[in-house]
Amino acid sequence: MLIQKFLSAFFITGTVLSSVQAQQASLPVFKTDYAVPAAYAVQLPESDRLTGYLGLRYDYNLNNRLLKIDEKGILEGFQSRPGKQRWIGEHVGKYLETAANTWMITKSAALKTQMDRIFNALINTQLADGYLGTYLPDSYWTSWDVWVHKYDLFGLLAYYRVTGDQRALDAAVKVGNLLVKNFGDAAGQKDIIKAGSHVGMAATSVIDPMADLYMWTGDLRYLDFCRYIVKSYDHEGGPSIVKTLLNEKQVDKVANGKAYEMMSNLVGIVKLYRLTGEDQYLRAAQYAVDDITARRLFITGSTSDHEHFKPDYVLQADTAAHMGEGCVTTTWIQLNMQLFAISGDLKYYNEIEKAVYNHLLGAENPETGCVSYYTPLIGVKPYRCNITCCLSSVPRGIALIPYLNYGKLNNRPTVLMYEAANIRDQVQTADGKALPLVLQIHSGFPAEGKATIGVQVPSAARFALQLRVPVWATKFKATVGGKTYTGTANELIAIDRNWDRENTIAVSFEIPVTILPGGQSYPNFMAIKRGPQVLSVDQSLNPAFDITKVVFQTPSALQLANAATKLPAQWIGKQAYIAKLRTSANKAQPVLLVPYAEASQTGGDASVWIAASK
């Protein structure tokens, strides 16, 4: 019972195995439980294959990024120490975690072969004492060495989770033991604050996978190590993450404001709350997310300027600002996933959806698999295929998508995204039986606001199925068995009924078009949003005018016309819309808009911010 309860509550950066799936596949289970139960279980059911818009982007991530990974480049820092970059070792761990999550969905034979090969090459470089970094002995535990071991742990534990290969857990335990031996407050141990960059936050972010290692092993030394890390925040020269957030409630007041490293710590801090129930950890993370959402978040669901949090409402969005670091986007999603799991509060899920449909997908070119380190809202997206931290982090975020569209909220199966998908799971019936459940979702979303959900069970039964009403949706209704259920934005509809063996839910909703003001950074600009998607003007699709100079009258209401047929043959994506805007000379100007996630894919200058006049 303990394991079943635990497996329904816990996830590692978005992934968990149900007890049924683990038993069927003879995969490992965790050795301990959370102190704080979860409202929402981000879990992988028996199967969940996205087949629509997000499914297509997911497959691009597999075929154009993961299967084309530079194996030599991500391994050579271990095989021939020292590495060429101080942080070169992070990439193999990020790859292994991404590949593990993706393989659990796709069962791609090519990916499994590649993943096995890279895993075996990595563990063959581990030293007898457990060291698995890319430094020479005279530089151990300096610069980014702890950070590299952090990503070793992520990758090894993910590989263990999906394969059950004991060698992966053994290697992770050796890493954990080495960290516990070297860092602490006892005589002869090192201060972890002095072992990493950015006021120690790079090194202390190892709190995240160390919490996971405790869950896999039940070894209290790893939980104690997490407590040590929180204590170390207040060492001399430390970042004082928890105390500052509790007192100031603003992330830009914490340490040097480095976004990626700070949020990486916060993900671990939330896990520590779940393990201990100590409320200050949860409150610190909640204050951080509330502050980012209110003051430091771009309309596309990312944050950071030159990799740091800036003062209130400063959201410069061009290429010069080095905004929206890809590592930050992925970590922002992970942080909201943790808070959503604890609370089931849709405000955290709304941030996940915003980031996924916009900044996360926008950071990877679907045609080439290349990634932009910083992904601007104004200018050409600088896609590159060389090895950098964000070129490993963005695919890592995309690999989480199938773990976000469906799950259990308060033990009820819940559809969160209206993407086409084939889902197999189990459901608890009103009389306490566990039945296989099949959901077949047919949908044209995000282009269309309608979907049909086929619900199949082996025999008639009563249970509740929940549907999320998106925060942006209007006129939402779901009809099944002659009864219509309606809902308002940002709520859950519970369909509690006697289900036949085969059922069909017809879902429909309107996808509104809204005008977003440019705020403090762009006071004379507007952006156009359709449902969860921010739209963009791509210069290559609008050759008749200079998008950087045209000034439009801000409309009080805006209608979009479908213009998918106007896209070039080579364009990846099927959404395009004509907006008829009035220019400053009061002339009608048709503008072709595409989702921000697809803009600039052919190298065109693009912008979500359009100069506007009253």
TrEMBL record:
Keyword field: Hydrolase
Positions of the Non-reducing end beta-L-arabinofuranosidase-like GH127 catalytic domain: 84-398
A GO term for molecular function: hydrolase activity
Superkingdom per UniProt: Bacteria
Pfam families: Beta-AFase-like_GH127_cat, Glyco_hydro127M
Domain spans labelled Non-reducing end beta-L-arabinofuranosidase-like GH127 middle: 433-510
Name under which the protein is recorded: Glycoside hydrolase family 127 protein
Species for this entry: Niabella pedocola
